[in-house]
Q: What sequence folds into this?
């Protein structure tokens, strides 16, 4: 996970630096752009398995109340080596590579690698089936997501059950 943790982190405060992005996010949630990835097998629904097992990640840019589809990223290692167990660090690295420069990952389920992924991402569990529904929930809860993002490696994952409820899971 060391390699993935260093991706995009400049030391000089450039715009790809994680510290730079965090300082911008602290300033104003309305003007913050977040890149949010949703694990999917068909482009419309969240995948049923652990998010890291999705065939694709649909990436959206969220800025205030605006949303824009950015790209579909293939999770080329989604099947992985069948000899690897859930929670294998190599699986976490493969998922982290596919999620380069992503701020938030959203899925219905996370496996044991959640502990590794949340060092670099805000991991959000939602209880809906469709990406468009999950997108609304993320927008409705942008403040707690930003708050968790700003915690850095000490962040916890969020569980968003409905548009009104949010809980932060503890270890």
A:
């Amino acid at each position: 996970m060391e390699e993935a943790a260093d991706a995009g982190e400049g030391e000089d405060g450039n715009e790809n630096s994680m510290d730079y992005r965090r300082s911008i996010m602290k300033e104003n949630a309305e003007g913050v752009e977040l890149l949010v990835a949703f694990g999917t097998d068909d482009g419309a629904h969240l995948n049923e398995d652990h998010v890291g097992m999705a065939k694709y990640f649909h990436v959206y840019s969220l800025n205030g109340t605006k949303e824009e589809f950015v790209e579909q990223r293939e999770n080329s290692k989604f099947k992985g080596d069948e000899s690897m167990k859930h929670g294998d660090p190599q699986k976490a690295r493969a998922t982290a590579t596919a999620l380069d420069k992503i701020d938030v990952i959203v899925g219905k389920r996370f496996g044991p690698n959640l502990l590794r992924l949340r060092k670099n991402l805000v991991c959000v569990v939602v209880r809906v089936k469709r990406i468009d529904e999950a997108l609304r929930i993320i927008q409705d809860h942008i403040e707690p997501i930003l708050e968790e993002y700003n915690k850095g490696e000490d962040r916890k994952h969020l569980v968003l059950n409905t548009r009104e409820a949010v809980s932060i899971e503890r270890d």
Q: What stands out?
A: The chain is about 25% helix and 25% strand. The chain has one domain: 2-168. Residues 2-168 form a domain with the Nucleotidyltransferase; domain 5 fold (CATH 3.30.420.130). Helices lie at 2-6, 18-27, 89-98, 114-117, 131-140, 142-149.
